[in-house]
Predict the structure.
Amino acid sequence: DQQVKQNSPSLSVQEGRISILNCDYTNSMFDYFLWYKKYPAEGPTFLISISSIKDKNEDGRFTVFLNKSAKHLSLHIVPSQPGDSAVYFCAATDSGGSNYKLTFGKGTLLTVNP
Amino acid sequence: DVKVTQSSRYLVKRTGEKVFLECVQDMDHENMFWYRQDPGLGLRLIYFSYDVKMKEKGDIPEGYSVSREKKERFSLILESASTNQTSMYLCASSLRHPGRRNTIYFGEGSWLTVV
């Protein structure tokens, strides 16, 4: 059973516009959420995170929103740039667990067109 | 900066061969992980280790084993490689209790092709 779901395998947006990537989770024990970005033939790199005590976290062009009641989070990229084209993975964890382990979604391929 | 180094970027092995994928991290992290990434399937955890000589199965451990003899080094072993193990393998590490900035750090990946 998939505990972290990214239902859109791909997303295409125009440069300068907003990109919105969505993620849903089912495990109510998850209390920490992260987004990773991955270019082809490279390892994922950490982008931004949010704790369940917050509903929004912002870092430059990237903002993550968390709706706990809906078990939904989203990553907003404004403005989108061609260099943002990559696969974005949503991840979640129960930070109170005995060992730190992330559960990943299947990823969303973002393409930003010039 | 954290550095997670995977010894081989590209490997081609024959069916039935024993394959070793090596990973070293330089940040004294307690936790280390092996994932594989396949198109449409995302990142799937194979094994992880939270201390030297300690290991736990992830979601897809079948056909794999691991070794953690030193804190900085975590090896993934394919006892008898099969074609369905052709994939990108990603090593990662993290602090045991990362605190406020919970994150794990990935290596650049190892592309394994089994023919």
